[in-house]
Design a protein that fits this description.
The protein is an alpha/beta fold and about 450 residues long. The chain folds into three domains: about 90 residues, Rossmann fold, CATH 3.40.50; about 210 residues, Mur-like, catalytic domain (UDP-N-acetylmuramoyl-L-alanine:D-glutamate ligase, 3-Layer(aba) Sandwich); about 140 residues, Alpha-Beta Complex (Protein-Tyrosine Phosphatase, Chain A). It contains 18 helices and 20 strands. The strands form four sheets. Strands 7-8-6-9-10-11 form a six-stranded parallel β-sheet, with helices on one face. A six-stranded mixed β-sheet has the order 15-16-20-17-18-19, with helices on both faces. A hairpin with a 2-residue loop joins strand 13 and strand 14. The termini are far apart.
Length: about 450
Amino acid sequence: MMETYSQTEINHPMRRIVVLGGGESGIGAAVLAKVKGFDVFLSDNGTIDDHFAQELLKWGIPYEQGHHTEHLILNADEVIKSPGIPSTVPMVQKLEEQGTRIISEIEFAGRYDTAKKICVTGTNGKTTTTSLIYYLLQNAGLNVGLGGNIGKSYAYQVATEHYDYYVLEISSFQLDNCYDFHPDIAIITNISPDHLDRYDFRLDNYVKSKFRITRNLRPEDCFIFDSDDEITIDHLNKIVLSCKRLPFTQKEEVPQGAFLKDEKIVVKYEEEECNIYLKELALGGKHNIYNSMAAALAAKASGIDNEVIRASLASFQPLEHRLEPVLSIKDVLYINDSKATNVDAAWYALECQKRPVVWIAGGIDKGNDYEVLKPLVREKVKAIVCLGVNNRKIHEAFEEIVGKKKMKDTRCADEAVKASSKFADPGDVVLLSPCCASFDLFTSYEDRGERFKEAVRRL
């Protein structure tokens, strides 16, 4: 069990903090540690981007890259580990063996932040939900920051800015090293198998990681959750929470929470009620109804006026790489959903399409089970273009449905877009919703999405 800090220890910080990882999260943590008077050292086993290295120099923070120097790390009183570093790496294991406290940037920043915090996690929809809530709070005139797994580092903002509210997207990796951090409003959008390679290939470990967002909720705090999500409800029934529970659902009416009735979302919080017609929502698709419900509940629990909630949900703009319309060429609409790196995300993308689909899929398979996608592929997909190094599992799953002649293997975005354009007829959609990680051919899902958009513009 990880030890916790007393208020005395927080007010009189220990002498030496080591930060592992020199990305957005690590740089922010190092700057906050410097501001709070720690002796700080940052170590990255890889290469630190030039703009991050300049930031460290500006703040006078010593660092190393390309290796870890053991004696400069193992003498730390506490280590802040970037979320991308798994606990299996040798340096982390050595720190754990000697009993060094290892925490996340989120845990560290939370010690010095008195703002109200709305924190969002989940397998799918968390970025959209986080962005919706941030947009709602901004439109309500609140002094609000955006951070966590989106935007600027939370720790960097705590070090250099002041906000009354934060809306934080928090991944399971960031939650793994959180212990005393607590939100005022915690949201789990949904849970489905993902990143299981980091959790000993056990879904229960991944679920427990997501639920760490609820571990310090107080009676006055709120937990917003999808009561239609079986995995979420199964775990919720096994634990005890003393906070307010606010479900959102598309299946039934609830006394407190959000539900569908007569083509509108009904939001009930304490004695307040807000109605939002589905036809007014800026974001389409069943999955975005859930996201809008969660965001509206968070806004209502934050005291935001009904008119602001309705107007904001009607005017919000789609996010980049998330069902992002790119161009319509010869009456074929090209959609960039590069952020869809798992089966559930691709399911949502396919489910909301109303036109025949040429589907671009592929990349690094994370142990995907494609069975759940087969009914949608039969109903909506006319051809599949594989964009990846190894497309065997996609062929095995869908070749019998669409036919061998309607599948094409490609190794770059240009090839994929050109192949898709040959399969597509006027009135069709070309949908990049890869269902897989991007790192076989691209540096990130953002890189994959950008290259797709560039290729579309070159058609």
